[in-house]
Inverse folding.
């Protein structure tokens, strides 16, 4: 018969020591895991913080406030300036309003975003005391035309300022339920060689990309050529139809309802915007001329058919 090994105090000590080492090892591993998770969380917070910008929105009207809602939700610091007093609207959106552009520029924003009307862009830009800004500040715009602000920036801004021209091809109505899938056209006109300046420009564009915008990089010239056919033509047709004072009828077709909706959408924008699309896009004049020729051609085709029918009725003898 096998006898069990007699118990000794040294065995108890050894067992206790092993248990302590195991508990200590488990605690160390748990501590390491917690520290690792904490470092990852800190890195994530730092990355999110790094992505935030101080954005000065110059022109804090309807569209400027529309952009501010999303920028504020993303955690960016917002400054606002406008000729009209929009301090209450700015406060409700978490922005600080400055009536004096000198005070605004002395806040040293990372980005100065022009959200003015097309017609007032030049005087507003000239009124900014850019000497109070940091020398590498990024200037951006959200105008519906692109060559005009591009040339204006290059003319009035010293070469040490960065420039990116953007056009969110949506507004408060089309973007009220989110920006996902809506196009954002941009052109990095002049960005400094340093990595931090390139990174700042990308962080500004990321404000649109993270909302799901379809990012379209395109030269300002190509944008205006495309926008004349897509945007200016749409506004022109809508405003021509508005002159007809169209009304809903009891027998509306889907096509007719689409025309009524087009009138509503285009005429909800100011005539100042439409006039700016015409005046500051050199492609618009050519498009109007083509539209005139197309309408004349269509009328001639219709009247020619009518004349053929009348001629047959007047001069051809009926068959007996």
């Amino acid at each position: 018969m096998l006898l069990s090994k007699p118990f000794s105090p040294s065995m108890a000590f050894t067992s206790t020591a092993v248990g302590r080492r195991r508990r200590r090892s488990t605690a160390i591993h748990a501590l390491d895991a917690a520290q690792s998770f904490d470092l990852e969380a800190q890195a994530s917070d730092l990355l999110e913080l790094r992505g935030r910008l101080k954005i000065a929105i110059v022109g804090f009207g309807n569209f400027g406030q529309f952009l501010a809602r999303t920028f504020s939700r993303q955690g960016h610091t917002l400054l606002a300036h406008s000729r009209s007093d929009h301090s209450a609207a700015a406060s409700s959106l978490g922005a600080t309003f400055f009536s004096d552009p000198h005070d605004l520029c002395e806040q040293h924003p990372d980005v100065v975003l022009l959200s003015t009307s097309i017609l007032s862009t030049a005087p507003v830009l000239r009124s900014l005391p850019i000497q109070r800004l940091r020398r590498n500040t990024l200037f951006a715009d959200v105008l519906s035309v692109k060559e005009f602000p591009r040339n204006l920036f290059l003319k009035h801004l010293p070469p040490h300022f960065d420039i990116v021209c953007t056009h969110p091809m949506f507004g408060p109505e089309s973007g009220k339920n989110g920006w996902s899938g809506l196009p954002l056209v941009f052109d990095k006109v002049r960005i400094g060689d340093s990595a931090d300046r390139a990174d700042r420009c990308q962080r500004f564009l990321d404000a649109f990309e993270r909302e799901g915008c379809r990012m379209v990089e395109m030269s300002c010239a190509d944008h205006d050529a495309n926008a004349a056919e897509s945007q200016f033509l749409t506004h022109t047709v809508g405003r021509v139809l508005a002159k007809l004072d169209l009304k809903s009828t009891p027998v509306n077709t889907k096509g007719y309802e689409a025309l009524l909706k087009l009138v509503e959408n285009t005429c909800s924008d100011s005539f100042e915007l439409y006039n700016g699309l015409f005046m500051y896009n050199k492609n618009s004049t050519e498009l109007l001329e083509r539209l005139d020729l197309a309408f004349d051609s269509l009328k001639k085709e219709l009247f020619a058919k009518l004349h053929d029918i009348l001629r047959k009725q007047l001069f051809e003898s009926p068959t007996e």
Observations:
- DSSP finds eleven helices and eight strands in the chain.
- The first helix runs from residue 9 to 50.
- The beta strands are 54-58, 77-81, 95-97, 111-114, 138-141, 162-168, 183-190, 214-217.
